What does this fold into?
Amino acid sequence: MNKRLSDGFITNFLPSLDTPRLRELRLSAIGLTSSSGKLIASYLSSPRCRLHVLQCNDNSLGLRGIKPIVRAIRSQNYTLRSIELYTNQLQDEETASDSQTSSDEGQGNERIGLTRNNIQTWRRCESLLKQILLRNILLKREINKQATTLLSYARPLLLRGCRQGLIDNRAPVQLPLQSPNASRGHNVGFLTVYQSFRFKSLPLELQHYVLSFLAPSLSSLQCIRVIDYATSANTLPSFLRLFSTLSRKMHIRSGDHIARIPDPSGIESALGGIIWPAEQHRDPISSTCSTNRCMGSSGSLVCRHEKERMEFLEVVGCDTFELEPGEGTGSTREVFTLSLTRSV
It folds into this structure.
């Protein structure tokens, strides 16, 4: 914490900050004023920003500096999950000299429902921030779900292998059709039974288009990245690495059962428990534990499957909701995605 840094530091630092893998940024107690509000808003709106947590406590941003930040998060940022703006001289910021604002700021205030010269505006900002962050979390959860679903179907359908085309090339077969009133073995005709739909015979573009309906909330680029990931043999997990991880690090053999290591921060460990049995007759090569918490329930340790899932989502850019070119906040796709989260 160094309040001598002030706005000059932000002026030079944020425009040059290009770290999409940065998840947390702390700018507390460094002497920021309202002049830094637009610089922070500009960074939050840029594709260079993939922050999950932003802290700007104990500064002098005031309401004038916080308003553009709220507008930027609402319209352009879907990655942020937590933001702290405490102790920023909010009560003293609204003065007579502040009553004159630019037309752009006035329009922005109207869009987010803010009125000047009223301390209730900060409470309104705080309420809006909670709604926006909740929106981001719900959208992220649904995007994650649809991306993994798309991968699970696209991989077996699109990844070329040694068995490609075996089913599609089979000719239709004719089976004897029996009358329910006829004696056993008496055929009254033949029923032509076709094998599964020849999906692979469709043009590749149509195959991708059909699969995209499994993930309607993903942007076009997100769908393309997931499909490219699914069709690459280089992204397949190594069987030996998978088996080694499951047998040595995650699970312990105990007779006919598989035991899971408890979370050391959980109550099971505090009570002296060492392991607890997993589901009987469970496949040891399965990608998930039967309870989806093979390393405990408090989340201090991350399951290997969950870690690989998060890595996949980051690689294909499906760890957050993504706007299409020319698409704005409150789009039909965004509203539709939020409706899916409410119906669960």
In short: The first strand starts at residue 24 and ends at 26. Residues 120-158 form the longest helix (39 residues). The chain has two domains: 6-96+105-118, 140-159+203-343. The beta strands are 24-26, 53-55, 82-84, 173-178, 187-193, 251-254, 257-260, 276-277.
